[in-house]
Amino acid sequence: MPRYTTRQREALLDYLSRHPDQPLTVREIAAGVEPDGVSLSAVYRNLAELEAAGLIRRESRPGSREAVVQYVGAENCRGHLHLTCTRCGRTVHLSSAAASLLTGMAAGEGFSLDLTRTALYGLCPRCRQEVQP
Asked: Which of 25, 57, 74 is a domain's end point?
């Protein structure tokens, strides 16, 4: 049976695609799409389907019980390692050269990295500057 794109799903995808480097909680997403008439239950339902389709990634933050999701689009994040700021939550792609180095190191230990689920955590330049005097 074909999957139809609903108005709610379009509003959700539009909102997520405008925040590609920002992991968002479900409540933040719901607040962002509420003006478009998208209910909280529709957000949960559509996020589950978008995750199954590989259009978003979901992760838990250290020290938090609330998961965040990030839009990865059709090709936006696939095959990239991610750097995630533990202070502001911003997520960026690691350079290809650095990613190759890390995947090579993992392979040396017999590991194959799952690039769709791999993130390194630390402070982004802006937050590091705000924290340091």
From this structure: 74
